[in-house]
Amino acid sequence: MKIRVLMIDDHRLFLAGLEDILAREDDFEVAGVAGSCREGMALALEKRPDVIILDLAMPETSGVEAARILSEALPGVRMAALTMHLDRQMVFEALKSGMTGYILKEATPEEFLFALRVIARGETWLSPKVATLVAKDFVRQGAQEGASEPALSEREREVLHLLVKGAGTREIAGKLHISKSTVDTHRRNILDKLGCENVTCLTRYALRHGLVDLDE
User: Fold this and answer.
1) Could you tell me where the beta strands, DSSP code E, fall in 84-185?
2) 57, 108, 10: which is closest to 116 by C-alpha?
3) Under a CB-based contact definition with an 8 Å cutoff, are residues 80 and 119 in contact?
4) What's the alpha-carbon Rg for the chain, to the nearest Å?
5) What is the pTM of this model?
6) What element of type H or E holds 81?
7) Are 69 and 41 in contact (CB under 8 A)?
């Protein structure tokens, strides 16, 4: 079975080059070409291709918006962006729209064909530069989240643990052998660090972020 490909791009000369590349391969068939998203969406509904290639920067309707519409209308279709834009926001918008591929127009014909075959199998494929961008963003986001995690002292964690278990000020003071005023000070500091207004909020936050273990 041949992989039927529909291509949507407003540069006709570029499309002609892609058609020529696909025509040389035994496992591909050009299901159609379109110079606008509106034309491409109509062709997609008519031809029901296996893979749709979309330029992101299109007149009238963007490739991302077209992909959102097509992913609902044709749930089984595979879609990929074919663009010159190496931009993290555009990458994430494309992937959120239902695309499973992001191919840069600087790709070689061999890379382009390889990407189409991967996408047609239902897998995700990103150009190497795009994959690097996504990986760096993921690592940076993780580092920021880790850095933003509030640092509680060992004593504050002990107080938090008892608060979440429902202990009152007097009980906490007795268990930790500290004064009630010290417990109140720790409670205020914990509330400030975790951005909470009350113990209910503290409990939700602590359980969500694994700061306490109720089994202990």
Assistant:
1) 101-104, 125-126
2) 108
3) yes
4) 27
5) 0.65
6) strand 78-83
7) yes
